[in-house]
Specification:
Layout: H1 12-21, H2 23-42, E1 48-56, H3 66-73, H4 78-81, H5 99-103, E2 109-111, E3 118-120, H6 121-128, H7 135-144, H8 165-177, E4 178-182, E5 189-195, H9 198-255, H10 262-299, E6 303-307, H11 320-339, H12 341-345
Antiparallel strand pairs: 1-5, 1-6, 2-3, 4-5
Helix pairs in contact: 2-11, 9-10
């Protein structure tokens, strides 16, 4: 014979009655939660965020037709992915993981909105960066722990890959405050910078944009610039050889103007031919050098700023009102569970 069990019905009136009976507990805990939440969130400095969008010229475009259209329907632009460059645009965000790129931002000049602070980005983070009060005891405890900073003294002017403990911490702070992302479909680069001052984050975004442009330009034109320097060296050597041959020919011709001997005339013709050959070599190398210079300009990418960095009007974080409201709601939920604990434990 089967036993039919009637499901237990939850009486909301009993639950509300239990909660109401513990209302004095709510009156005590909620104000304390509100005060502590406000005290906590007010100690956290506010931050501002500024972003910009940059569209670089990408070489090697040419993925068109049905395959390109099909890929576009899935949100992937094959045209932006196909490039003869070894560094794909999708790898640009990884530059923030490179010490060389991050340490290069140490020297960025930062200026605050009130004009009271104007220093390098490194000094701004080490001297003027605000932190919650409880972070100072933690930092003091960490300073008591011996590190290898005494063994290796980093020097940003010599090697960005040999940093002290302090410099490495600043580099990690920069990585947290600055981000680079690339849209897979449009290849548009978005740079986002965060700082505790509205003007400072705008300056940071523009500085990262300039350094990213320099990196892309240097990489794209590296081979052409090497060729340009090579042809310039050959051209300069050819010019010296030509000028030397011209001086020798001129001196010999001036010294033997009235000489009619065939041996002298033959030597003069040899010197003239040697001078002409060196001139032809110089002329050819000059043409190749000019072509190499034009190649550098041809390989230099053009950049279009889709969205410029602006000075933010309002801070982006922390959301103080939402935090306090969330903590009060959480406290209310916990107190409600505590008030009906006997009902929850009841079988």
């Amino acid at each position: 014979m089967e036993n039919n069990k009637t499901p237990e019905v939850i009486d909301l009136r009993v639950i509300f009655s239990k909660i109401w009976s513990e209302r004095k507990l709510f009156y005590k805990v909620l104000p304390i939660t509100f005060v502590l939440s406000c005290a906590y969130i007010l100690c956290i400095p506010r931050t501002y965020t500024s972003s910009l969008s940059l569209a670089p010229e990408i070489g090697g475009m040419g993925m068109e037709g049905t395959l390109g259209s099909l890929a576009s329907s899935f949100g992937i632009d094959l045209g932006s992915m196909e490039t003869t460059d070894a560094i794909n645009p999708m790898l640009y965000p990884d530059l923030m993981e490179d010490n060389g790129f991050v340490v290069g931002l140490f020297s960025v000049r930062i200026k605050t909105s009130d004009g009271e602070i104007e220093s390098s980005y490194y000094d701004y983070l080490t001297k003027y960066h605000q932190a919650p009060w409880w972070s100072k005891p933690i930092q003091w405890i960490n300073d008591l722990v011996p590190t290898k900073e005494e063994g290796i003294k980093g020097n940003t002017e010599n090697s960005p890959y040999v940093l002290s403990k302090r410099q490495d911490d600043i580099a990690n702070m920069i990585r947290d405050d600055i981000s680079i992302s690339v849209d897979k479909k449009t290849a548009v680069i978005t740079i986002t910078a965060q700082a505790q001052d509205a003007l400072a984050c705008k300056i940071l975004a523009d500085s990262v944009k300039e350094r990213l442009q320099d990196f892309i330009t240097d990489y794209r034109t590296n081979k052409s610039r090497v060729d340009e320097q090579y042809y310039k060296k050959l051209m300069d050597e050819a010019k010296q050889n030509y000028e030397s041959a011209r001086r020798i020919y001129g001196s010999y011709a001036d010294a033997n103007t009235d000489v009619t001997l065939e041996s002298f005339r033959a030597k003069q013709e040899d010197l003239e031919n040697d001078m002409q050959l060196k001139f032809n070599t110089y002329s050819t190398l000059m043409t190749q050098y000019q072509a190499a210079k034009a190649k550098v300009q041809e390989r230099t990418p053009a950049f279009t700023v889709v969205k410029g960095a602006a000075v933010p009007i309002k801070p982006t974080g922390p959301k103080r009102m939402l935090f306090v409201l969330g903590m009060c709601i959480l406290a209310t939920f916990i107190l409600s569970l505590y008030s009906i604990r006997d009902l929850l434990l009841k079988e």
